[in-house]
Write a structure and sequence with these properties.
mainly alpha; DNA-binding transcription factor activity, RNA polymerase II-specific; 16 helices; 434 residues
């Protein structure tokens, strides 16, 4: 009698590996190859455009956990940092496997518990600030995990304290400035979606012009965030909202800066395109996006900033972006959002292969969903020349509904209701025109 054919053991998924080891406390219990893959995803998806640690420190952390490399840094700090890196990577991948959200939450809770037991986060150091910024990024991706405003407030205060403490220390000051730019960019995204003022004060080196050197993606996104904040601040200043009649009245205040800033936002994308080309970040890693993913991410950020600028200038009675241009911006934003969504649910490629660039999984958070919702609302409104949206726009509205529904399916309470609200607006408009 012939023996039964041998069956090759099935390869465990990332979710299976983590869910089977949730009770293990040793960081090195996570297989080295899997941890390497996750850290590569973190680096390419987060560190590239909102830097926190830098390549060398990430490498040192990994080597200390798995190779036992001696390091002068406190072992507790290394373990917390490692757990936060894993938690962020797993959160980015939860669209591919919802079970990874459990693994991400476990890693994050372990990091929080360790930091609380040692009172580590109470002392203002560069390492502590880095941990706090990583926590802010995780909460931004998972807003139900903690109070984002408390964490942003604590992180902002420590950032300012360190800037004052370091003074003439150029090395530490440079690290603090990088962390400041990252925190400023992150806070801008959150405050704009919430309609709240930012907490961080005037930048380290204030400038109203977009950086012309195309060599630093994080600096360019920071510059765009500064432009976005100017319009956001004008919209919410003094907590007032102008009526339609007031918005048509000429203002005695000079708002010429709006025209200049909008031109800067339009020209920003070409600088961004040159930047990612110079950095060798133009590789397309999946079939979901025809253009480089980082370029699409920059387009999405530019388009949502232009929509904010449109709202702010309209409030002042200045038509700097026409209605038809606004519709065009919304169409492009929805297409970019859809491409980024497909990138986030596509297969992970190239993370461990020599010569290949790791997959980018951009954080499609509730701030992303807010922008998609805004674009959908604008597209529902009838244009000047017709009563109902064009068929192409109706298709884009359905894409918006699909994106919001997909987000709500994998989110906590943060995005609930956006799909229902947009669908209700669409149904109401149809009932009116009929």
């Amino acid at each position: 009698m012939l023996p039964p054919p041998s069956v090759a053991p099935e390869k465990q998924s990332l979710a299976d590996i983590f869910l089977s080891s949730l009770d293990l406390q040793k960081e090195s219990d996570v297989p080295k190859e899997v941890a390497e893959q996750l850290i590569a995803i973190y680096y390419n998806s987060i560190e590239t455009w909102i830097p926190v640690l830098g390549h060398d420190l990430i490498h040192e952390t990994f080597a200390r956990i798995y190779d036992g490399t001696q390091h002068t840094e406190d072992q507790v700090t290394i373990k917390i940092r490692y757990r936060l890196l894993l938690s962020i990577s797993l959160s980015l991948m939860k669209a591919q496997d919802p079970r990874l959200a459990v693994a991400a939450d476990t890693c994050f809770r372990q990091a929080i518990a360790t930091s609380a037991s040692t009172d580590l986060l109470a002392y203002p150091t560069t390492s502590t600030l880095q941990l706090l910024v990583l926590m802010c990024i995780y909460i931004w991706i998972n807003p139900g995990s903690m109070d984002i405003w408390r964490m942003l407030g604590h992180t902002s205060r420590m950032c300012l304290d360190l800037a004052e403490m370091h003074g003439s220390d150029k090395n530490e000051s440079a690290k603090s400035e990088v962390l400041y730019r990252t925190l400023y960019t992150l806070e801008t995204y959150i405050c704009t979606a919430y309609g709240r003022p930012r907490q961080l004060p005037v930048p380290f080196s204030p400038t109203d012009q977009v950086t012309q050197l195309a060599d630093d993606p994080s600096r360019l996104l920071y510059d765009l965030a500064r432009l976005q904040n100017r319009f956001h601040r004008d919209l919410i200043e003094n907590g007032s909202v102008l009526t339609v009649a007031e918005s048509k009245m000429p203002s005695s205040t000079d708002f010429a800066w709006m025209d200049s800033c909008i031109l800067d936002i339009y020209s920003w994308l070409e600088t961004w395109r040159a930047c990612i080309a110079n950095q060798g970040l133009t590789a397309t890693t999946t079939e979901a996006i025809d253009e480089p993913p980082l370029l699409v991410w920059g387009q999405f950020q530019q388009l949502k900033t232009l929509l904010l600028a449109k709202a702010a200038s309209d409030r002042r009675g200045k038509v700097l972006i026409t209605r038809q241009e606004e519709y065009s911006l919304c169409r492009r934003l929805v297409k970019a959002a859809e491409a980024l969504h497909q990138q986030s649910i596509g297969p992970i490629q190239g993370t461990l292969s020599p010569g290949h660039q790791p997959t980018s999984i951009f954080p499609l958070t509730w701030t992303w969903a807010h922008s998609v919702f805004t674009a959908g609302v604008i597209l529902i409104q009838p244009s000047i020349s017709q009563v109902t949206p064009e068929p192409a726009d109706q298709a884009l509205i359905q894409i918006c509904l699909g994106l919001l529904n997909s987000y709500e399916m994998r989110s906590e309470k943060s995005g609930q209701g956006l799909t229902h609200c947009l669908q209700s607006l669409q149904d109401f408009h149809r009932s009116v025109v009929c």
